[in-house]
Design a protein that fits this description.
By secondary structure, the chain is of the alpha+beta class. The chain has four helices and 13 strands. The longest helix has 8 residues, at 66-73. The chain is globular. It holds the Pfam family MOSC.
Amino acid sequence: MGGRVTAVSSNGQYTFTKPNRPVIRLLAGLGVEGDVHAGATVKHRSRMAQDPTQPNLRQVHLIHEELFDELAEAGFTVAPGDLGENITTRGVDLLGLPTGTLLRIGAQAVVEVTGLRNPCLQIDNFQDGLLKQVVGRDEAGAIVRKAGIMGIVKAAGSVRPGDPVEVELPAAPHRPLERV
């Protein structure tokens, strides 16, 4: 089970979108080198306001490019990096992975999946109505988050568009992803 990286993005400043790069470097225990969200403790502003000493379970943000196809069908134009992700993939069911899954990306990098991204209202500032497209409810009324997954870097390495993404599931029983 695997896919490919289609884009990589990073930004050293707090902005909603992140520019695409030819390569990003993942640093073990920290995240994306030079990215504003890199660090052993939380770097997202809302999380820092709650408790700046909590561990950073959101070092790397990954989104499946198939989401952009779905959004295009609903009339939205979203490209890699637009939603603030670091790694855009194709061919991996990111939202279906269990907590603790290892993603082997490129030649050396390994990211451990920690949970679902919990998108905020900034998405509607980017494109009005987009939040309702990436957060909704299923038939049973449970919240469904589609804006990607978060992870921590277990092994350092460079990541480029075209790199393979290999999925290593954790031992069963599997825990479904929850928001982090």
